[in-house]
Amino acid sequence: MGVDITLIWALIIIFGIMMYVIMDGFDLGVGILFLAIKDKEERDVMMNTVAPVWDGNETWLVLGGAGLFGAFPLAYSVILSALYLPLMFMLLGLIFRGVAFEFRFKASDRNRHFWDKAFIGGSIVATFAQGVALGAFLDGIPVVDNAYAGGGLDWLRPFPLFCGCALLVAYAQLGSTWLIMKTEGALQNEMYRFSSYFIWILLGALAVVSLWTPLAHPEIAQRWFTIPNLFYFLPVPLLLLFCFFATLITLAHRATASPFLLTLVVIFLGYSGLGISIWPNIIPPSVSIWQAASPVASQLFSLIGALFILPFILVYTAWSYYVFRGKVKIGEGYHH
Questions:
Q1: 183: helix, coil or strand?
Q2: Of 147, 148, 161, 47, whose CA–CA distance to 103 is shortest?
Q3: In this predicted model, what pLDDT tens digit does every residue of 68-78 receive, in sequence order?
Q4: Of 67, 128, 261, 293, which sits with the fewest C-beta atoms within 10 Å of its C-beta?
């Protein structure tokens, strides 16, 4: 029995997108929370907590996109055709954020508000666009003769728009728990308060998505609720509920690292649930990873390069977080 290179590539892309969602999620969440914090010094601290790592976080997005292009060209062409506008909005948002990182600390007091707005707006637009793209993807993309068969605005539907709002809450929760871990004093106290609200809203949003998808798509309902699948997949929602209540307890006890780590697990479990719903389709509801795969020779050639570069990305990421560990305090200057 030979090695299924298509399956390996699917797992690499799933891993890359998961790493992006987890790691750039708190980064975007900090930008969203800028909207609620007005003090200049506190905003400086918030940006300093992510300044050393934000650009490295986005490496995972590039890896996922490049892997999709090389290993699953049919999926790449169809998904980008279907989601062209939300993905363009996402990229524009990320560009505005990146520019704001570089120019905000160099701007005069008179002009700094412009870069604050760019950071906030870019974070909100990028996050909402990601959620809309995810929702439209889960809702299904029509394919006829190996080409996208829908319209350019098919993503403007209630479920994708709801997913965009839900992702804003998820990233805000990640950002607030990250700031609990990385800051102190009044700013940290404010983040404890925000996190206590966001965690409940996030629970409600995940509950709505978990009900909406099987009600709208009978094949997803069959995947989750038939025997024995029900028993196989039941640990996912049970662990999700456990992590929610554990997060509430750790917030009440003023823990610093635990709320962030538990929120990461919540996001991972939500991501796993979505994966269970659509597997093995790479273009829901009908195109599998094997149908969308490039020739084996092309996948193997790309896989050699990916397996070579992945350890370097992982080591660099781990090292950057280790070097910039600990609290960020007021008046420390730009951490970049």
A1: coil
A2: 47
A3: 888 999 999 99
A4: 261
